[in-house]
Amino acid sequence: MSTPSSTRGAPRDFNGRVVLITGAGSGVGLECARVFAAQGAKLLLVGRSADKLEAAAAELAETRAQTAICSGDVTDSAFATTAMEAAQESFAAPVEVLINNAGVIVRRDAVDTSDDEWRTVMQTNVDGVFYLSRAFAQQLVYDGAIVNVSSTCGVVGAAGLAAYCTSKGALNQLTRTMALELADKQINVNAVAPGAINSPMLFSEHATQAAADSVVERNQSSIPIGDVAQPEEVARAVLFLATERHVTGTILSLDGGYTAN
């Protein structure tokens, strides 16, 4: 299916379009919601905590953004259909941009990672993205975007993050494969791959409080540009990947030069 001449070379316009964001209650997900709200998008905020989603929706409503919330578990394949239906019910339109931001981390060497920990990471970081991406592609006929939030850990190894690195590597391959599969529908599929982000995940799951307190300083020392990313920087990269129709199958590094070494 060829690109219509009316859109050839033009950036995607989000005014009035429905954007679904997972993990939207805080951190990168909430920043994505703010960025797309400024573009005039209608927002479906998805996450496990209804309280966090309601607080986010209340904040966005002050900017006159049209928002709806859908709380649930992305690891449940049926929830993906529920979320797409929620968009139709709330906005009488399909989801046209999907941002797969929800994720979890376990800080363990492979030999110390339990079966349950492994499954939790894979089910959230890989299965959840697959379920939502599949449901998204099934309900959208033409012209849209999927942006996955990956990590430098999908490109390079990191001792102590066995399950997390594996999940992000799988996410990158899902991104590339679906980009090829959905190209004829003019649906772009990309991922942004940040390094350390100043968001709740960076400070979670550490063995000691001292390790959590020093995590920013420790990461700064290994990042050539000398600082960790801010959530709004990641959100702007997500917006770029969703905007440009000729960018697809790309894993965009946003890591201050970490993977350039």
Describe this structure in words.
With 261 residues, this protein is of the alpha/beta class. The protein has a single domain, classed as NAD(P)-binding Rossmann-like Domain (Rossmann fold). Helices cover 41% and strands 15% of the residues. The protein has eight helices and seven strands. Strands 3-2-1-4-5-6-7 form a seven-stranded parallel β-sheet, with helices on both faces. Helix 2 (50-61) links the parallel strand 2 (42-47) and strand 3. The longest helix has 25 residues, at 115-139.
Topology:
Layout: E1 18-22, H1 27-38, E2 42-47, H2 50-61, E3 67-71, H3 77-91, E4 95-100, H4 115-139, E5 144-149, H5 162-181, E6 187-194, H6 209-213, H7 215-220, H8 231-243, E7 251-254
Helix pairs in contact: 1-8, 3-4, 4-5
